[in-house]
Amino acid sequence: MLYNSIRTTSLSLLLTSCLLFLGSSVSAQNMTDGTTHRRDECGTHVTEDDIANAELAISRLKLPRQASVREYTFDVHFTIVAANMTERAGWVPNSQIEAQMKMLNERYAGTGVSWRHAGITRVLSRYWHDSIEAGLQQTNDMHSLFRTGKSTTMNVYTVGFTDASLNGYSTLPVNYARNPIEDGVVIFFATLPGGLSLERQGGTLIHEAGHWLGLRHTFQGGCTGVGDGVDDTPPQREEHYGCPIGADTCPGGGPDPIYNFMDYTSEECRTEFTPGQISLMQKSIAAFRSNSNR
Ligand SMILES: [Zn+2]
């Protein structure tokens, strides 16, 4: 019956229709619960090993101390995973994807990074829409079937995170070589510009793309240690929400970087990457996402 209801010959739709049957034990849930209460902002985890491995690879590049900002263009491929063909179930309109691309390029202006819209794959699977989380078998299955491109293609999957209540997460460039299939960004579909989220209107992908290019949270490590590995973002004890002007949670270094895209502050509050972050992005690209390591 399901096959009869889908008037398409798309391989993607047919493949995931099969999986939809397999996953039919998952009950229907309200896809928009997350629009009325705070979800976890970001599920990206950066370990001490990730930091050490990235710093080692970057140190081997032997880059000049004052390298100029190089221009890079990355392809962006969207895989839209919806429970059915309505926006509330994740079937986001192309206009939101186009608005997200425009916003990516606006927010990354001056970083040397620009983004080219490479394509959209639409997938119907309530199971994946609800249950995707980092490291699960179904997540690996989804990436295996739909990932496209090389280390220079940012694969963006939009899902419901119904079980996880997340806004997004990303893999890190340092882990591309070890696990290229899982490389990419997974975001809550409603966070696209013009989408149903009350918290985010495009900012989630701006933030997650920062991780995809090697940036850490501004509050990484709290007040001690190497933190986010960037000199011009003052240390910050923990994440901020809203826009707490004047917040200063660590001794020395100056006020917390609440305006930074790599904090959790509000959509209106987050407006900048620092020169130090731009330098770290450039080094991460040279080490892990340039044409020489495709
Ligand atoms: Zn994050």
From TrEMBL:
One of its GO terms (biological process) is proteolysis. Keywords: Disulfide bond, Hydrolase, Metal-binding, Metalloprotease, Protease, Signal, Zinc. It comes from the Eukaryota. Residues 1-28 form the signal peptide. The keyword Transit peptide does not apply. PROSITE patterns: PROKAR_LIPOPROTEIN. Residues 200-285 form the Peptidase M43 pregnancy-associated plasma-A domain. GO terms for molecular function: metal ion binding; metallopeptidase activity. Transmembrane segments: none annotated. Belongs to the peptidase M43B family. This is Peptidase M43 pregnancy-associated plasma-A domain-containing protein. It comes from Agrocybe pediades. The lineage of its organism: Eukaryota, Fungi, Dikarya, Basidiomycota, Agaricomycotina.
